[in-house]
Amino acid sequence: MKILVTGYTGQLGYDVVKEGTKRGLDMIGIGQKELDITKEKDVQTFIQELKPDAIVHCAAYTAVDQAEDQKEICWNVNVNGTKYLAEAAKEVNAKFMFISTDYVYKGEGTTPFVETDPADPINYYGYTKYESEKVVQSLLNDLFIVRISWVFGINGKNFIKTMLGLAETHDELNVVGDQIGSPTYTFDLAKLLLDMIQTDKYGIYQATNEGFCSWAEFAEEIFKQSGKQVKVNAITTEEYPTKAVRPKNSRMSKQKLVDNGFKPLRPWKEALAHYLNELKIEV
Ligand SMILES: NC(=O)c1ccc[n+]([C@@H]2O[C@H](COP(=O)([O-])OP(=O)(O)OC[C@H]3O[C@@H](n4cnc5c(N)ncnc54)[C@H](OP(=O)(O)O)[C@@H]3O)[C@@H](O)[C@H]2O)c1
Q: Which of 15, 68, 131, 191 sits between 20 and 30 A of 98, alpha carbons compared?
């Protein structure tokens, strides 16, 4: 199976290509240098020539706060880029997997969202991801949409790397304690995505590591597992204003994965332990 993966130079795409290669699949990973997805003609030509069996679309404009000031660029990459890829996928009959986000939800309440809950994004990035979901749904049938959250992987910036960096210069940190969600380890998610893409169990799914926590609890666990002596003070969202509004409730149910015979990801603390080890090996 020939699988094209966008966002190869980012966190998730990198691990999807690595996992697929390990499985003996024909993986083609691309970053912006190889193909700028905002260039419609280039996208068409690239896909027509490659004729992949499937496209795992991990590329996105992911700077959530910056998106509030760079709306046009964000829209162009997330909505237009996705549209061009989906149109090209249709031409060559390729399966399509679009990676989406917990930010499509409004984020109120305390119960986990299910895939059929109404979307109502509260920041611009989330809005563009939801608009992209609608675009791909209007174009394609052989389609997976996978909503993920709080991503960490070896190839790129993430919360864990930021916390570990801060631990070098701080013995106390204020971290938001009233936004609850689930971390997602790209090493684990890549396996699930590749299991999925080889089936025809199309539809919208949610996928994260198991268990819920706040950012403050996540930070505490990072310091505990990495042996750093840093005191974490849980603060409120209001005490840590950001340009883009963040949902307080990012809990997502993974029941649909189980119902469709897919293996849910391991608990987030186990994933963190594996990742910290991966970071050590990488150094
Ligand atoms: N990070 C999170 O916490 C999070 C949470 C929920 C959902 N998601 C979604 O998960 C997916 C993967 O996220 P990630 O954290 O792996 O992303 P990432 O590390 O920020 O990487 C983004 C990727 O998109 C590519 N890209 C950006 N603009 C492009 C363009 N115009 N043409 C082609 N490629 C372009 C980048 O390529 P270059 O490096 O070559 O520019 C890079 O490979 C995204 O769809 C994101 O929306 C992420």
A: 68
Q: Is 8 a catalytic residue?
A: no
* pLDDT tens per residue, range 95-139: 999 999 999 999 999 999 999 999 999 999 999 999 999 999 999
Cα 131 from chain centre: 16
Q: Ligand 1 pocket, 204 CB below 6 A? A: no
Q: Are 217 and 254 in contact (CB under 8 A)?
A: no
- 2-158+183-210+250-266 CATH pick, 3.30.200.20, 3.40.640.10, 3.40.50.12780, 3.40.50.720: 3.40.50.720
Question: Which residue has a Cα nearest atom 24 of ligand 1?
Answer: 59
CA 146/CA 132 separation, integer angstroms = 12
Closest residue by Cα to atom 1, ligand 1, is 151
Q: Give the position, in ligand 1's atom list, of the atom nearest the Cα of 60.
A: 24
Sequence length of the chain is 283
